[in-house]
Design goal:
Layout: E1 4-9, H1 14-29, E2 37-43, H2 49-59, H3 66-72, E3 73-77, H4 87-96, E4 102-107, H5 114-123, E5 134-138, H6 146-159, E6 165-167, H7 175-178, H8 180-185, H9 188-191, E7 199-207, H10 216-241, H11 250-262, E8 264-276, E9 294-301, E10 310-316, E11 323-330, H12 334-338, E12 347-353, E13 357-365, E14 373-381, H13 382-385, H14 393-402, H15 412-427, E15 433-435, H16 438-449
Parallel strand pairs: 1-2, 1-4, 2-3, 4-5, 5-6, 7-10, 8-15
Antiparallel strand pairs: 7-11, 8-9, 9-10, 11-12, 12-13, 13-14
Helix pairs in contact: 1-14, 5-6, 6-15, 10-11, 10-15, 11-15
The chain binds 6-O-phosphono-beta-D-glucopyranose.
Domain Glucose-6-phosphate dehydrogenase NAD-binding: 8-179
Active site: 232
Catalytic activity: D-glucose 6-phosphate + NADP(+) = 6-phospho-D-glucono-1,5-lactone + NADPH + H(+)
Length: 454
């Protein structure tokens, strides 16, 4: 395997300690990345490599293996906004690389820093336009609205070739989200009924129990709509609603996803925003903030396949449980309607978290002499069956970047149309209602739509 050098800009943040370093050490232990891997961690703080790793271990939620990381990581103190300080970084990379080295530049920083850091990377000649051994990776959020996203993107295109750019939406690396196309297109029983004649509605839900944690500054300018719906929920929606792609190559899949994003609309009277009780008391949140920490939306995908089918999107913080799930509810059969029996509609659950898997709700006769019916679930729990083999989203994403696989990364037009839609919704957003728990929100949604979000 070629040598690998990964340079992390913003290496003292949460993302590096909680996601990137654990993922990279696991890939290293499993020999998925080269023996000769160097991780250069850049930051402004006064650390040497040892004290940096100690701090990262302290910050990380998982058990970071310091012995492994000591082999891989080198901390370099550097102000990434100051081009004059780039020389030691350029020298360090030059010392380590040969003509075949794979180089990844990971921008684990806020979007406001993308332009200056990209310009510095370019001006210091760290990355050469079009060099296919060099890739540059951007974390979400990609901009804070359509205008800023466009500006960032134009600037990126002036420095790098699109083939070198990887825009991360970590939901795409989750096992069950990678599995959506397989479940849909490689199973006759689903592929034939995946349209508005048989699907009654789709619910796309991402609930969290945590609050804003240490990200108040960012979160308060964003809110649930821009933080979660613009990226993760719309990505899930586009995979569920897309038409059959010409092929399963990255570009063809993205062409179909974009068609979904281009044809979205929403019902402005069926939107609910909430703010959790205690949000205004969080550190660094202005005490008159109107930022929503919960959002519910009724959307439509106006394509021949899905016209008229409601897609309910719901996400929020400080809710009853951590759960991400997509629920596809099917129309009743004629017999189901005719029989006077307590039958349920069929539902397909695509379970993303906490345990990845698939569930199918069916009607069945109660076994034995009684004539009663019951609702049963056929369940396939991927996570339970794959003990030890489940990979974290970031492992898969980093490995795919290393191997030049672009399917799980967002193309510019996906982001563009997603922002376009979110801006329309944002204009009609109402002030959030306060919520103490999920039950009150659930009740409100039930009153508004007649739908239970489960
Ligand atoms: C991030 C959001 O993209 O996703 C966070 O910025 C959110 O606010 C997180 O908590 C949720 O990700 P996951 O993988 O824990 O569902």
């Amino acid at each position: 395997m070629k040598k690998l050098i990964i340079t992390i800009f913003g290496s003292t943040g949460d993302l590096t300690s909680r996601k990137l370093l654990p993922a990279l050490s696991k890939l290293f232990v499993e020999k998925q990345i080269p023996e000769e891997t160097l991780i250069i961690a850049l930051g402004r703080k006064e650390y040497d490599t040892d004290s940096y790793l100690k701090q990262m271990k302290h910050n990380s939620a998982s058990d970071l293996d310091s012995d492994i990381l000591k082999k891989l990581v080198k901390y370099l103190k550097l102000d990434i906004t100051d081009l004059k300080q780039y020389k030691p970084l350029v020298d360090l990379i030059q010392e380590h690389k040969d003509s075949k080295t794979r180089e990844l530049y990971y921008l684990a920083i806020g979007p406001e820093l993308f332009p200056i850091v990209s310009t510095n990377i370019n001006a210091s000649s760290l990355v050469e336009m079009g060099n296919k051994n060099q890739s540059i990776i951007f974390e979400k959020p990609f901009g804070h609205d359509l205008k800023s996203a466009k500006e960032i993107n134009e600037m990126l295109w002036s420095c790098f070739d699109e083939k070198q750019i990887y825009r991360i939406d970590h939901y795409l690396g989750k096992e069950m989200i990678q599995n959506i196309m397989m479940v849909r297109f490689a199973n006759r029983i689903f592929e034939d009924i995946w349209h508005n004649r048989t699907i009654k509605n789709v619910k796309i839900i991402a609930k969290e129990t945590d609050g804003v944690l240490g990200r108040a500054g960012y979160y308060d300018t964003s809110g649930a709509l821009k933080d979660m719906v613009q990226s993760h929920l719309l990505q899930m929606l586009s995979l569920i609603a897309m038409d059959v792609p010409l092929s399963y190559f990255s570009e063809d899949v993205k062409n179909e996803k974009v068609q979904v994003l281009k044809h979205l609309s929403f019902d402005k009277d069926l939107m609910l925003c909430g703010q959790y009780d205690g949000y205004l008391e969080e550190d660094n949140i202005p005490n008159d903030s109107k930022t929503e920490t919960f959002v519910f939306l009724k959307t439509f995908v106006n394509t021949p396949r899905f016209k008229g089918v409601p897609f309910y999107l719901m996400t929020g913080k400080k809710l009853d449980q951590k759960e991400s799930v997509i629920i596809i509810e099917f129309e009743e059969t004629n017999e189901q309607r005719k029989w006077d029996l307590p039958l349920s509609t069929n539902k397909l659950y695509i379970k993303i978290a906490p345990l990845d898997g698939v569930g199918l709700i069916l009607n069945s006769k109660v076994p034995g002499l009684r004539d009663d019916v019951e609702t049963v679930e056929l369940e396939y729990c991927i996570a339970c069956n794959a003990v030890g083999n489940m990979s974290e989203a970031y492992e898969k994403l980093l490995l795919d970047i290393h191997n030049h696989h672009k399917t799980l990364f967002t193309r510019w037009d996906e982001i563009e149309y997603a922002w376009h839609f979110i801006e329309q919704v944002d204009k009609d957003k109402k002030d959030p209602i306060k919520y103490k728990n999920f039950e009150a929100l659930e009740e409100e949604i039930l009153n508004m739509t007649g739908e239970k979000m489960k």
